[in-house]
TrEMBL record, chain A:
Belongs to the SoxB family. It catalyses: sarcosine + O2 + H2O = formaldehyde + glycine + H2O2; sarcosine + (6S)-5,6,7,8-tetrahydrofolate + O2 = (6R)-5,10-methylene-5,6,7,8-tetrahydrofolate + glycine + H2O2. It comes from Nocardioides vastitatis. This is Sarcosine oxidase subunit beta. Pfam families: DAO (PF01266). SUPFAM superfamilies: FAD-linked reductases, C-terminal domain, FAD/NAD(P)-binding domain. It is found in: Cytoplasm.
Automatic annotation (TrEMBL), chain B:
Pfam families: SoxD (PF04267). This is Sarcosine oxidase subunit delta. It comes from Nocardioides vastitatis.
């Protein structure tokens, strides 16, 4: 693939404004979800006097560290609704944002390696179909037709017994997604303010009235925290706790190779997922490191384990060379589902807990969060995902579909 | 890979251990007396500080005993290791870190 923007990519896609003293709404965090939130605040709700405050640079967090798997084949109705809404938005966004961010619907295989895996997978496929999500269960031979390099031999430690397949799933180029949203936000008047860390909250009683930042105090009575791995740190400054734990999550790429891998393959059981990026690198992700960590790096044995799994599934990778590994910080919820909604502080909203799998949800998370911030009420998409669920017990357990991740 | 000092076996590789999350979270004395909110706090809410964190580890691949440690979640450096019936050591002298949230 050549440069998708031959010769004419402008140097700056958005302005670099100084913060104003106040805004109608503030979004904390310039990752994908923060950008999408601002985009839909402006586009769906006509709120353009708003700012995104990013402590580092745009998409420097998980947004440009993830393995870009997009799919909607989650088990429960609540999850299928929000992830499928996202997938439908992904299908329109390249045109709507007028930006080819290489969204490629090459399908995702989720492999089953045990009888229990097979049963769970078949159940998930049926649940997906009832929710209008495209899904099929494939035999090992059918798996190999979709992805010829998968090893379907019975003579391995964890043989492939089948797989779920979602043909409309795929990948996209994450940094370009961020730039596409940023350009569109900027064009509607949204201030994108980088190098601006939120260090505290200004309050009037139990109401938020603004934020303290490294670039001064900025007032607003509608504030959204969209800080992924740092959500707990921000919540702490606002005086409450979130039911999330931050863990390192690592990924890696190989050197560039000829196209060998036409789809996306995930295996929760042996803990690896693989796709091949447009340029040719094999992109692979692992599971989280077990300990809490904010270091954006994890332990090497996690990568070793992931490579062992990849080699068993794809013997052809035996001579591939590792190019680089990296880590992000993911905010994991007890039920592997996100939190989007009100907080104990009036006017302060939270979008967090997407853990290892929030990239795919970027547009829908932004859509729902924008609705919640603009109207003060949850959208029907995020109504089930409020903080209350931990008290009511109405958890949305997606450990099966989220599994190792993504 | 982390190198972790088991109080009984000494320094070993992280792969010999399993993680147990926040330390010093006691089982409620009278669970039936808790409100739904308090029960939710106990079940699902844990501190998640960026800085020193008192946490539990178990040496599954060795003596199989649980113990506590204070580890800095930014650098992953272990600041203290102690038995799980001991109080959290005062590590404020060891670090200038923002310890907010690590107090439980
Ligand atoms: C290795 C890895 C692989 C992954 N693979 C996938 C995948 O294949 N598919 C998938 O769906 N998901 C995947 N994910 C998860 C996905 O990346 C996240 O769920 C998602 O990116 C989180 O939303 P975000 O983009 O807004 O986060 P981020 O990009 O992390 O945005 C949060 C932003 O908030 C900023 N911030 C934090 N604190 C403050 C503050 N005090 N003031 C101002 N700004 C602040 C941060 O600097 C950061 O830029 C993966 C994650 C990792 C780490
Ligand atoms: Zn030991």
């Amino acid at each position: 693939m050549g440069n998708p923007f031959p010769g004419e990519h402008p140097e700056w896609l958005w302005r670099d404004p100084d913060p104003k003293s106040s805004y109608d709404a503030i979004v904390i965090g310039g990752g994908g979800h923060g950008l999408a939130t601002a985009y839909y605040l402006a586009k769906n709700h006509g709120m353009t006097n708003i700012a995104i405050l990013e402590k580092g640079w745009l998409a420097g967090g998980n947004m440009a560290r993830n393995t870009t798997i997009i799919r909607s084949n989650y088990l429960w109705d609540e999850s299928a609704a929000i992830y499928e809404h996202a997938l439908k938005l992904w299908e329109e966004l390249p045109e709507e944002l007028d930006y080819d961010f290489l969204f490629s619907q090459r399908g995702v295989l989720n492999l089953a390696h045990s009888l229990q895996d097979v049963r769970d997978s078949v159940r998930r496929v049926e649940a997906n179909r009832l929710n209008g999500v495209d899904a099929e269960f494939l035999t090992p031979e059918e798996v190999q037709k979709v992805c010829p390099i998968v090893n379907i031999s019975e003579d391995v430690r964890y043989p492939v017994l089948g797989a779920t397949f979602q043909p409309r799933a795929g990948i996209a180029k994450h940094d370009h997604v961020a730039w596409a949203f940023a350009r569109a936000c900027d064009a509607m008047g949204v201030d994108i303010i980088q190098n601006c860390e939120v260090t505290g909250f200004v309050r009037d009683g139990n109401r938020v009235t603004g934020v303290e930042t490294t670039r001064g105090r900025i007032l607003s009575d509608t504030v959204g925290m969209v800080a992924a791995g740092h959500s707990s740190v921000l919540a702490e400054k606002a005086g409450f706790r979130l039911p999330v734990q931050s863990h390192p999550l690592q990924a890696l790429v190989s050197e560039l190779y000829e196209p060998v891998h036409p789809t996306v393959v995930m295996s929760n059981y042996v803990h690896v997922y693989v796709s091949q990026a447009h340029k040719g690198e094999l992109v692979m992700g692992a599971g989280v490191d077990q300990y809490n960590g904010y270091g954006q790096r994890g332990s090497f044995h996690v990568i070793e384990h992931q490579m062992a799994a990849a080699l068993e599934l794809f013997p052809i990778f035996g001579r591939a060379h590792l190019l680089r590994t990296w880590g992000g910080i993911v905010d994991v919820c007890p039920d592997a589902s996100p939190i989007i909604g009100a907080t104990p502080v009036d006017g302060l909203y939270v979008n967090a807990g997407w853990g290892t799998g929030g990239f795919k949800a970027t547009p829908a998370a932004g859509w729902a969060m924008a609705h919640t911030m603009a109207t003060g009420e949850p959208h029907e998409l995020n109504q089930p995902f409020g903080l209350e669920r931990f008290t009511t017990g109405h958890l949305i357990d997606e450990h099966g579909a989220a599994g190792v991740a993504h | 890979m982390l190198q972790i000092e088991c109080p009984w076996c000494g320094l070993r590789d992280e792969t010999e251990y399993k993680y147990g999350g926040q330390a010093h979270v006691a089982y409620p004395e009278d669970p039936s007396a808790l409100s739904d909110e308090e029960w939710a706090e106990y079940l699902f809410f844990r501190d998640n500080p960026k800085g020193p964190f008192a946490e539990r580890w178990v040496h599954t691949g060795g003596c199989r005993k649980w113990f506590n440690a204070v580890r800095d979640t930014r650098t992953y450096e272990f600041l203290a290791v102690y038995a799980n019936n001991e109080p959290r050591p005062d590590i404020s002298s060891l670090t200038g870190a923002d310890t907010a949230g690590a107090t439980a």
